[in-house]
Amino acid sequence: MNDTERLIALNMVEDIGSVRTRALLRDFGSFEKVFKADAGEISGVKEIGPIIGARVPQAIKDIDLKKEMSLIKKYGVKVITFLDEDYPENLKNIYDPPVVLYVKGEILPEDNTAIAIVGSRLASFYGLQTAERLGFELASHGVTVVSGLARGIDSASHKGALKAKARTIAILGSGLANIYPEENRALAGKISASGAVISEFPMETIPDRGNFPKRNRIISGLSLGVVCVEAAERSGALITCDCALEQGRDVFAVPGKVDSNTSKGTNKLIKQGAKLAQGVEDILEELNLSNFASCHLGNLRSWTEDTKLDKNESLVYTLLSSDPIHIDDICRESGMELGRISGMLLSLEIKKFAKQLPGKNFVKI
Hints:
Blueprint: H1 3-11, H2 17-28, H3 31-36, H4 39-43, H5 49-53, H6 56-62, H7 65-74, E1 78-81, E2 100-105, E3 114-118, H8 125-140, E4 144-147, H9 153-163, E5 168-171, H10 185-194, E6 196-199, H11 211-221, E7 225-228, H12 236-246, E8 250-253, H13 261-271, E9 275-276, H14 280-286, H15 298-303, H16 311-319, E10 325-326, H17 327-334, H18 338-350, E11 354-357, E12 361-364
Parallel strand pairs: 3-4, 3-7, 4-5, 5-6, 7-8, 8-9
Antiparallel strand pairs: 1-2, 2-6, 10-12, 11-12
Helix pairs in contact: 8-9, 9-10, 11-12, 16-18
């Protein structure tokens, strides 16, 4: 058994964790000696004590390491430990960096220039649009976009980076053999092909509620800063922002409507001193990344390319905003009949200037 296998096994023992794993290495000098130690010797480690220490040796023996290694091979996963040279630089200096990272894809040196985008799972169209655009523009500037693969803001930010054909990293609150949410399996596949999907949890770990605050410290720990796009007052995204502050990272917040539940958390962050982010320039300037070199800046132009609109399409476009507007109201404000407006809205959708929402409502893209 090598140290990587020993760390995989220790990582599977309940109540050990990263801080206690390092304490074991400190007191015993090697993980080989840890695995030869009895309950009394392990109980002598200050951070562990007799209650946990009494069951560690038997817990190690009960671990089905052969099955775990088989799953790692089956899913094409690479395991990186805190002892390895390719362990992410940004994670090394946080209080409790994970001792084991399960990686589907690849972590590269350029991922040290990373920014996290987080927010509500129940995001508004405005929030989704903003997250996807920020993900696209940050990635287009050569920044790796980090998020949590959750529904809503997380998914939108990953998709934005993928549209830029650039790097994005997803951090899971479950094992890599148990992607959550299930509808994001295809998205996880795309991310691993051009970035990485990462978990500190054993392969078959279910998405337990208590796992997500732990994974949030990795999202912020991998990043130079965290951007919160939308969040309710008790959103899990705010936990990531708290982790970021504890780790000495910058926190940014996108302002939202004062009467929107999904903006209460972000607006409160701004009141508490988070940096206001109205666009990608605010983030890049604050982090001294404005001149950051990127070979993908051409992609940035493709997001806002100057597609030609005729006079009437331009008029209808000016009536749209991020707030949904019903087609009847567009007819009334434009003075045009329904059939004509329907045709122009369809044209705007095809040209990616508008999007139809349920109930014949439309918003500007």
